[in-house]
Amino acid sequence: MFYKDERLALFIDGSNLYAAAKALGFDIDYKLLRQEFMRRGKLLRAFYYTALLENDDYSPIRPLVDWLHYNGFTMVTKPAKEYTDSQGRRKVKGNMDIELTVNAMELAPRVDHIVLFSGDGDFRPLVESLQRQGVRVSVVSTIRSQPPMIADELRRQADNFIELDELRDVIGRPPREPRPMERDDTAVEVK
Protein backbone atom coordinates (compact mmCIF):
# COMPACT_ATOMS: atom_id res chain seq x y z
CA MET A 1 0.00 0.00 0.00
CA PHE A 2 2.60 2.55 1.12
CA TYR A 3 6.33 2.74 0.40
CA LYS A 4 8.71 4.48 2.81
CA ASP A 5 10.43 6.48 0.06
CA GLU A 6 7.29 7.76 -1.67
CA ARG A 7 6.29 11.40 -1.43
CA LEU A 8 2.84 11.69 0.16
CA ALA A 9 0.24 14.42 0.37
CA LEU A 10 -2.96 14.32 2.42
CA PHE A 11 -6.14 16.02 1.23
CA ILE A 12 -8.75 16.14 3.99
CA ASP A 13 -12.34 17.08 3.17
CA GLY A 14 -13.02 18.31 6.72
CA SER A 15 -16.81 18.06 6.86
CA ASN A 16 -16.83 14.69 5.08
CA LEU A 17 -14.21 13.16 7.39
CA TYR A 18 -15.97 14.57 10.46
CA ALA A 19 -19.30 13.04 9.35
CA ALA A 20 -17.70 9.64 8.65
CA ALA A 21 -15.91 9.51 12.02
CA LYS A 22 -19.05 10.66 13.82
CA ALA A 23 -21.08 7.92 12.08
CA LEU A 24 -18.51 5.41 13.40
CA GLY A 25 -18.64 6.87 16.92
CA PHE A 26 -15.18 8.38 17.36
CA ASP A 27 -13.27 11.63 16.91
CA ILE A 28 -10.11 12.10 14.87
CA ASP A 29 -6.89 12.97 16.70
CA TYR A 30 -5.19 15.02 13.97
CA LYS A 31 -1.79 14.91 15.63
CA LEU A 32 -1.89 11.10 15.50
CA LEU A 33 -3.23 11.18 11.93
CA ARG A 34 -0.31 13.30 10.76
CA GLN A 35 2.19 11.11 12.64
CA GLU A 36 0.71 7.96 11.12
CA PHE A 37 1.17 9.18 7.56
CA MET A 38 4.64 10.60 8.29
CA ARG A 39 5.50 7.05 9.33
CA ARG A 40 4.08 5.61 6.09
CA GLY A 41 6.10 7.79 3.71
CA LYS A 42 7.66 11.22 3.14
CA LEU A 43 4.76 13.51 4.01
CA LEU A 44 5.16 16.69 1.95
CA ARG A 45 1.87 18.38 2.78
CA ALA A 46 -1.35 17.81 4.75
CA PHE A 47 -4.22 19.97 3.50
CA TYR A 48 -7.44 20.47 5.48
CA TYR A 49 -10.47 21.99 3.73
CA THR A 50 -13.42 23.56 5.49
CA ALA A 51 -15.93 26.37 5.11
CA LEU A 52 -16.32 28.79 8.03
CA LEU A 53 -19.26 30.89 9.13
CA GLU A 54 -17.66 34.32 9.12
CA ASN A 55 -20.57 36.29 10.59
CA ASP A 56 -20.91 34.22 13.78
CA ASP A 57 -19.20 35.56 16.90
CA TYR A 58 -17.99 32.04 17.70
CA SER A 59 -17.58 29.19 15.27
CA PRO A 60 -17.33 25.75 16.93
CA ILE A 61 -14.76 24.70 14.33
CA ARG A 62 -12.48 27.74 14.87
CA PRO A 63 -10.35 26.14 17.67
CA LEU A 64 -9.72 23.08 15.45
CA VAL A 65 -8.82 25.26 12.47
CA ASP A 66 -6.38 27.29 14.57
CA TRP A 67 -4.82 24.16 16.11
CA LEU A 68 -4.36 22.50 12.71
CA HIS A 69 -2.84 25.67 11.28
CA TYR A 70 -0.26 25.86 14.08
CA ASN A 71 0.51 22.12 13.91
CA GLY A 72 1.66 21.53 10.37
CA PHE A 73 -1.54 21.43 8.34
CA THR A 74 -2.13 23.68 5.36
CA MET A 75 -5.55 25.20 5.99
CA VAL A 76 -7.82 26.01 3.07
CA THR A 77 -10.96 27.83 4.17
CA LYS A 78 -13.62 30.02 2.67
CA PRO A 79 -16.72 31.71 4.03
CA ALA A 80 -19.77 29.48 4.17
CA LYS A 81 -22.93 30.81 2.59
CA GLU A 82 -26.06 30.92 4.70
CA TYR A 83 -29.51 30.65 3.17
CA THR A 84 -33.09 29.72 4.02
CA ASP A 85 -34.57 26.71 2.22
CA SER A 86 -38.13 26.42 0.88
CA GLN A 87 -39.38 25.15 4.29
CA GLY A 88 -37.90 28.17 6.05
CA ARG A 89 -35.01 26.24 7.62
CA ARG A 90 -31.62 27.91 7.99
CA LYS A 91 -29.02 26.08 5.90
CA VAL A 92 -25.28 26.50 5.47
CA LYS A 93 -23.49 25.74 2.23
CA GLY A 94 -19.71 25.52 1.95
CA ASN A 95 -18.45 23.16 -0.73
CA MET A 96 -14.64 22.96 -0.97
CA ASP A 97 -14.43 20.46 -3.87
CA ILE A 98 -12.97 22.91 -6.41
CA GLU A 99 -10.25 24.15 -4.05
CA LEU A 100 -9.24 20.60 -3.15
CA THR A 101 -9.22 19.52 -6.81
CA VAL A 102 -7.10 22.49 -7.95
CA ASN A 103 -4.55 21.94 -5.16
CA ALA A 104 -4.32 18.21 -5.92
CA MET A 105 -3.78 18.85 -9.64
CA GLU A 106 -1.09 21.45 -8.88
CA LEU A 107 0.76 19.13 -6.49
CA ALA A 108 0.45 15.97 -8.63
CA PRO A 109 3.82 16.38 -10.44
CA ARG A 110 5.63 16.55 -7.07
CA VAL A 111 4.09 13.54 -5.28
CA ASP A 112 3.92 9.78 -5.71
CA HIS A 113 0.85 9.10 -3.61
CA ILE A 114 -2.16 11.19 -2.59
CA VAL A 115 -4.40 10.19 0.31
CA LEU A 116 -7.89 11.63 -0.04
CA PHE A 117 -10.00 11.71 3.12
CA SER A 118 -13.47 11.88 1.58
CA GLY A 119 -16.21 9.62 0.31
CA ASP A 120 -17.67 12.19 -2.08
CA GLY A 121 -18.29 10.61 -5.50
CA ASP A 122 -17.68 14.00 -7.14
CA PHE A 123 -13.95 13.32 -6.63
CA ARG A 124 -13.93 10.28 -8.96
CA PRO A 125 -12.81 12.33 -12.02
CA LEU A 126 -10.03 13.89 -9.92
CA VAL A 127 -8.78 10.46 -8.83
CA GLU A 128 -8.88 9.25 -12.44
CA SER A 129 -6.90 12.30 -13.63
CA LEU A 130 -4.29 11.91 -10.88
CA GLN A 131 -3.85 8.26 -11.82
CA ARG A 132 -3.29 9.21 -15.48
CA GLN A 133 -0.46 11.45 -14.22
CA GLY A 134 1.17 8.50 -12.45
CA VAL A 135 0.02 9.33 -8.93
CA ARG A 136 -1.32 6.53 -6.74
CA VAL A 137 -4.48 7.49 -4.87
CA SER A 138 -5.75 6.04 -1.60
CA VAL A 139 -9.19 7.05 -0.38
CA VAL A 140 -10.08 7.02 3.32
CA SER A 141 -13.76 6.75 4.25
CA THR A 142 -16.16 4.10 5.52
CA ILE A 143 -18.53 1.46 4.24
CA ARG A 144 -19.33 0.38 7.81
CA SER A 145 -21.73 3.23 8.55
CA GLN A 146 -25.40 3.16 7.69
CA PRO A 147 -25.63 4.36 4.98
CA PRO A 148 -22.01 3.95 3.76
CA MET A 149 -20.15 7.29 3.66
CA ILE A 150 -18.26 6.54 0.43
CA ALA A 151 -19.64 6.56 -3.08
CA ASP A 152 -19.13 3.18 -4.73
CA GLU A 153 -17.66 4.74 -7.89
CA LEU A 154 -15.00 6.60 -5.86
CA ARG A 155 -14.05 3.45 -3.95
CA ARG A 156 -13.74 1.46 -7.18
CA GLN A 157 -11.63 4.19 -8.89
CA ALA A 158 -9.09 4.49 -6.05
CA ASP A 159 -5.90 2.43 -6.13
CA ASN A 160 -6.51 1.66 -2.49
CA PHE A 161 -9.50 2.02 -0.18
CA ILE A 162 -8.69 2.50 3.51
CA GLU A 163 -11.58 1.77 5.86
CA LEU A 164 -11.68 4.62 8.41
CA ASP A 165 -12.94 2.25 11.10
CA GLU A 166 -9.70 0.24 10.76
CA LEU A 167 -7.71 3.41 11.57
CA ARG A 168 -9.73 4.00 14.77
CA ASP A 169 -7.02 2.55 17.08
CA VAL A 170 -4.28 4.55 15.33
CA ILE A 171 -5.85 8.00 14.80
CA GLY A 172 -9.02 7.96 16.90
CA ARG A 173 -10.04 9.04 20.35
CA PRO A 174 -13.39 8.68 22.12
CA PRO A 175 -15.89 11.38 21.16
CA ARG A 176 -15.85 14.35 23.46
CA GLU A 177 -18.86 14.68 25.68
CA PRO A 178 -20.51 18.09 25.73
CA ARG A 179 -19.05 20.06 28.60
CA PRO A 180 -21.28 19.85 31.68
CA MET A 181 -22.88 23.04 32.92
CA GLU A 182 -22.40 24.09 36.54
CA ARG A 183 -25.32 25.61 38.37
CA ASP A 184 -24.52 28.72 40.37
CA ASP A 185 -26.81 31.67 39.86
CA THR A 186 -25.78 31.58 36.21
CA ALA A 187 -24.79 28.71 33.97
CA VAL A 188 -21.01 28.62 33.57
CA GLU A 189 -19.17 26.34 31.21
CA VAL A 190 -16.60 24.13 32.94
CA LYS A 191 -13.18 24.31 31.31
UniProtKB/TrEMBL annotation:
UniProt region (Disordered), positions on chain: 172-191
Domain NYN span(s) in chain numbering: 7-165
Source domain of life: Bacteria
InterPro entries: LabA, NYN
UniProt xrefs under Pfam families: NYN (PF01936)
CDD domains, alphabetized: PIN_LabA (cd10911)
The protein's name: NYN domain-containing protein
